[in-house]
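pls ignore typos typing on phone
adenine + seq
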Amino acid sequence: MKFSILTIFPDMFAGFFEHGIIRRAIERELIHTDILDIRDHAAGRHRVTDDRPFGGGDGMVMKPDPLAGAIRKAADRDPDAVIVHLTPQGRVFDQKTARALSEKAHLVLICGRYEGIDERICETQVDYELSIGDFVLTGGELAAMVVVDAVTRLLPGALGGDTSAETDSFADQLLAHAQYTRPRVFEDQAVPDVLLSGNHREIEIWRRKSALIRTLLKRPDLLEGYSLTQEELDLCRQWQNRLNRLIENQGDKR
Ligand code: ADE
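k done
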């Protein structure tokens, strides 16, 4: 898979590509990265990439011509190139979108700066607008890194174990189960016995239970529209009965 990144700050990506799973994905040629400096497509001695907004107002807007030149170079008549603009006005990026993008062959990521990019580029050249959350960054570079990271780790062979991405949070709409490693006892807190039992079936049941309760407590919104399996339904009924008993016992004290 290829990522072409259009930015006026190409150096921001150096460290990002040099570590961990992203670095390994590059070394194994699972991903190819191409950083294009938008400035290289700007005219004139000063290679200006921004200008004042028509109609007045604060800040600067990224000029369309350098962007169009950079997009042309990046897409290079590649029919598979998907042009993505990182902007707080885009659809919020989530795991489902990461999965969909991981099926693409070539993503061209446009990192806007200042007050944004000229609307004519958005209208004529951009396939998707993506936001990484409802907050405003100083530019799209960090957002582009987030997208590259989340998409790359989904590519076959990118993670150590084949199944790692399948047990991710959100992989099946639930958060991931709790994890523990050595030591067995840390500051008087022991690891749940079942995880040391070697009983794989019991461990699997414990993990599914952990994923469900964590989702229920931390992100109940994820369960809206979620279809419980029979096993999960039985678990919820057990919890419901326990909670009912707890609440009823409180009644006596009021
Ligand atoms: N550029 C500035 N803020 C952003 C955000 N939240 N998501 C994506 N790109 C951005």
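The chain has a mean pLDDT of 95. The two ends are 63 Å apart (CA to CA). more later
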